[in-house]
Amino acid sequence: MVKEFLKDILLFLKSSNFYKGVLQTVAVITPLIIFNFFGHISYAIPIAIGVFLNIPGNIPGTLRRKIYSTLISIVLTMAVTLIVSYAKQNFAVLLLTIAILSFFISLISAYGFRGSLIAFCGLLAIVLSLVSRNTTIGIWTYVGLIGIGGLWFLLVLCLSHWIAPKKDEDQLLSETLHITGSYLKVRGKLLIEKEKRDQLLIKTLKLQTELNEKHEILRELLLSERKQIGRSHFDEKRVLIFISLIDILELALANTLDYSKIDVIFKDRSVLKEFKTLNTTMGNHLQVLSKILMNKKKVQNKNELLDGLAVIEKTIQNYIASVELPAGREGIITLRNLQDYQQQQVTKIRAIRRVMNNVTKDKISFKDKEATQFITTQEYSLQIIAQHFTFKSPIFRHALRLTIAIVFGFTFGTLIGIKNPYWIVLTLIVLMRPSYGLTKERAINRIIGTIIGALFALAIIFITSNTMVYMVLAAVSLVIAFSLIQQSYRSAAAFITINVIFVYALLEPNSLVVVKFRVLDTFIGALLAVIANYTLWPSWEFMNLSPVIINSIQKNKAYLAAVSKIYHTKEIKNLDYKVARKEAFLAISNLNAAFQRMTQDPKSKQKEMQLIYEFVSLNNTFLSALASMGSFIQNHTTTASSENFDAFISHIENQLENAETLLSENKTAVIKEHKKIETAEEALKSSFTTLSNQRDQQIKEGQHKIDLEMRLQLQEAHLVTNQLTWLKGLSEDVYRNSTKYAQLFNNKNT
């Protein structure tokens, strides 16, 4: 236990997050040390503040994006500091200035996650501008020094990238390997843990969302840099690992089964235990690989994976011996399909192993122009902001809500004589998010973290008054706080509190007062944040779901067309298919995330929760069934498509088109003509029956061992017939749910 804990600590110290935490702390402290040595500490403080103001934008991404976003935040923070510094001369003018700046800066978050971090830098500048400063330095000099601090941080950023350019990539790949391992283990449990299936399904949705978020960042990092500066051997390795991880996710989604049907076929679930065990083995293997990637050690032995496949083959043989044909054929085919899936997953995992051991000869085949199609770009025109100037926009409502909370919090803190009322404002800008659930969760974590940090700091203060101890703890706590801010907000809040208390303890003799006001201000700010999100034009998640559901249906429809195309053309390396798959995965990830946010809203605001859960489940299951067909077509030789297949595809597309029309404004359905669906369904079932009869005849004639061609034909007929029938039923359910949803929520918002 202790050994594992020490390994985790060592892994943390090697992580990109700790590396950035150290660099950011060095960037803050260096000017303080240098200027203090020369007796000009008053110049060092605004430089350190300039560094601190621009740190939030240091998130994984290409160096080019980091430079541009940091330069924008430098200009923004300088302008905000200048304006607030002049406005401070009159309290009424100051409040008006804070209100205007808070509102318009908050709207910058319309430009995506990086935009929201730039907005946070601007809001942070408002807070730090409210802190009393040394009047021996003029306002313009002070603002100029803040700009120098920002440029100094940018220099540190560039140097850190030069020293360890692939640190973020390795960290993200390691995290993605670990989450993928967890995902495979949960999916294995779904096979046999019937009683926990609902909880496990919700857990898979959460893990899928996390994986798709990681994949998006990795696409930007790996493909953008590859396009801009070419590729090295190590770049090739990372891209190959990433491609294998995407394939593993698609294969896992492709193996989503109709579990109610599985429960009927395998009443004795012990048959499936070895399949679950192999999934667990694969998951553990990926999680070990995630640690090896960061520790640069030799990859572990592959025998555990191969032994697992051998056990699966033995399990299937035992099952074949225990059942009679033709009654047991469906169970045998299901197990064979599961075996094929797990063999493919083992192949993908072994491919990652080979890459990490430098023994692969695989090459990346797509061109740089193709790579750009996999990168999600963010538009930065002013029209984006203009589109959000409406009360229908959650970002607009959030900006207005945050502005009112900030003005009220600062006014309240000032009037009741709180020592540092800007701490209330700081707590508000850190905690408040468009979503009530996320704001409440962050508020709870902030309060708990602050109390833990305050108690620790108090214990140290009672034990010693040694300033050297305080300085060391202030520096160390800042490093850890920076390192944990993206991973564990509660822990980061604790270390930030420790840092603030010890910094103030160095400056003021009565440090206990600092502890008291720190906890009080945090509590007031957290309470205001939650109340504001609940009462001021709240953005309950059910109000914003329609566009997310529509997008998911649209992308599933496009993915269906891409699957149909490769079944017709047999063109396996099809770029359109891969792009459609990526967009469908992202759309379903956004839908899952929206549903998770809805579960965090108050119970009274979770309108028609069961209907929406069914909608989310249907769209996820539909995507999984599509991925199953796509994966099978890509990995097996298939027969020519028929008009029966086309009839199913057209019928399913029509159902999705009708559903989208019901949920959308000003849209007319475009319906495709096709062969009568009942006739097509009967024909496909007849095809499978014919093959089954042929196989029964072979057995009667003494040919007990099935030949490869017959086995593949049976698998194809079974899978395609079942998946098409399943997709048909799912699409009809999506349409029925869309009808109910449109009636209940009146999708026109009237």
Automatic annotation (TrEMBL):
Transmembrane segments: 22-55, 67-85, 91-110, 117-133, 139-164, 399-416, 451-482, 488-507
Residue stretches making up the Integral membrane protein YccS N-terminal domain: 72-340
Any single Gene Ontology cellular-component annotation: plasma membrane
Keywords: Cell membrane, Membrane, Transmembrane, Transmembrane helix
Pfam families linked: FUSC-like, FUSC_2
Cell location: Cell membrane
InterPro entries: Memb_transporter_dom, YccS_N
Domain Integral membrane bound transporter: 411-531
Record membrane topology: Multi-pass membrane protein
Family: Belongs to the YccS/YhfK family.
PANTHER family listed in its UniProt record: INNER MEMBRANE PROTEIN YCCS, P-HYDROXYBENZOIC ACID EFFLUX PUMP SUBUNIT-RELATED
Protein name: Uncharacterized membrane protein YccC
Organism of provenance: Cellulophaga baltica
